[in-house]
UniProtKB/TrEMBL annotation:
InterPro entries: Elp3/MiaA/NifB-like_rSAM (IPR006638), Methylthiotransferase (IPR005839), rSAM (IPR007197), rSAM_horseshoe (IPR023404), rSAM_sf (IPR058240), TRAM_dom (IPR002792). This is tRNA-2-methylthio-N(6)-dimethylallyladenosine synthase. Keywords: 4Fe-4S, Iron, Iron-sulfur, Metal-binding, S-adenosyl-L-methionine, Transferase. Residues 1-180 form the Radical SAM core domain.
Amino acid sequence: KEVTLLGQNVNSYGCGLEEKMEFADLLYRANSVAGIERIRFTTSHPKDVSDRLLQAIAECEKLCEHIHAPLQAGSNRILQRMNRNYSREHYLKLVERMRHYVPGVSITSDLIVGFPGETEEDFLETLDMVERVRFDAAFTFMYSQRSGTRAAEFAEQIPLEEKKQHLERLNRLQYQIATEINQELQGSIQEVLVEGPSKTNPQKLTSRTRSNRIVIFSGEKDLIGRLINVKITEAKTFSLFGEIFNE
C-alpha cells in the first residue's frame, strides 16, 4: 500500500548513475507503479531541494504531502559551524516554495540545541525560526560530542544544564505550535492508512494521514492495511483521534 524512499539526502539520487536521472524522475516513475497507493520519502537536505521535486509532489497523486527538511539551527553562525551549506534566509525561501507548490504541505524538521559555541542570541534565532515556519512536528535534540568529528574538538562546549534548559524552552514552543496546527484539523475528514493496534490502547487502531499524523480510532482489525476516511474528533500535540467516516 505504502512505500517510503529513504536516504540521508534523497535530493542527491542519481549521482553516479549511467542514466541521467534526478530524484524527481524516480518519484514520477514510482507514481506510475500499479499496486502502490502512497509514496513517502525522507530526508531532503534544505540546501538543494529543487522546484522540480516540489512540482513532482504537487503532480503525483500518490505522493504524500509531507516534507521532512531538517533545519538543525536558526542561527547563520551556527549553521556555518555545522557546515550545513545554507542560511536561515535560504530556508525561509524554501518554505515559501514548498507552500507555493504544495498548499497545505506538512513540514517537519530536526533541531539541535547546545551546539558548541551556541550563545543565547543564537538560540533565540532558532526559536524565531520555529515561530516563523510553524513546523507541523520536529525532532529535537541536545548536541552530544561524537569522537572523530570536528565539533567534538571545538573548545566552546555547552554545559549540560544549559542544553537541558534550551531543549525545554524549544520543546515548549514547538509543542504549542503543533497542538494549534492539529486543533485546526478537528472536524475535518482525513484519509488514513490503518497500520495496526494502537500501542497505547490495543483496543483501538492506529493509522496515519497523508501528512504523516497519527490518528487513533475504534474499528475492526480487518481494516488493518486499508485506506479509509476518518473524521477528526479530538486533537492533541502528538496525535489525533477520530471515528470512521462513511459518506
